[in-house]
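Chapter review. Work through the record for 3-deoxy-D-arabino-heptulosonate 7-phosphate synthase before attempting the end-of-chapter questions.
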Amino acid sequence: LASREVKPEPSVVAITDTVVIGGPEVIVMAGPCSVEGEAMIIETARAVKAAGAQVLRGGAFKPRTSPYSFQGLEEEGLKLLAKAREETGLPIVTEVVNPETAELVSEYSDILQIGARNAQNFALLKKVGQLRRPVLLKRGMSMTIQEFLMSAEYVMSEGNQSVILCERGIRTFETATRNTLDLSAIPVLKQMTHLPVIADPSHGTGNYHYVAPMALAAVAAGADGLMIEVHPDPERASSDGPQSLKPKKFDALMAKLRLVAASV
Ligand code: PEP
Ligand code: MN
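Structure tokens for 3-deoxy-D-arabino-heptulosonate 7-phosphate synthase:
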């Protein structure tokens, strides 16, 4: 179902009347790794909107590598995201970590994110395939592109064709970055599938210094959008502070991004 041989023309995923992924506009989803409280999510939502982002991201259910790390505000976090959407008009994307809470998340969220750690959780993929919400599917950290597309098939074969693929870095021998953002996956996926493809240079690099150059490179490589972590006070973030941009740096990146997007 995802193959370009079957459907040659590119698919677009409409989130709202004006936010369309896979169309002519590069769509930027920005916000904190985790929703930490009302003031911070509303402040961040306003800042990313002012900079030109079209979607607010924020984790309420967090799939942490360690069970002792912050696990998210859960339903309270979803409510705060909905409040930030009311305040700013930005649609929201947040992660679903298990089939049991998928319906709850879909009551609040405009896009259901499947994280790298769940990219081959087939029960979860089938569950979101049965819901009527666009799905942002991240590439698992040790998945081939073929396996990534098979995960998209799990969602689509349940009836949900609104799938957005996200390259977020893979595990390699390199330790200078958290993951290795596989930029070549973008043109490869574009050739193999009609689905929109976005990139996440925040998780892809793990270091805020490298986020802007890789964001620009991803758009130059043909990405339909980006997911970028932005936090008002990264030093105090509950998760992923080292890779989070301060609003001012994000604003500067958005200005450069407009130049690159206009020339590809
Ligand atoms: C996230 O978006 O905060 C996240 C956990 O991403 P990934 O699944 O790519 O690690
Ligand atoms: Mn994160």
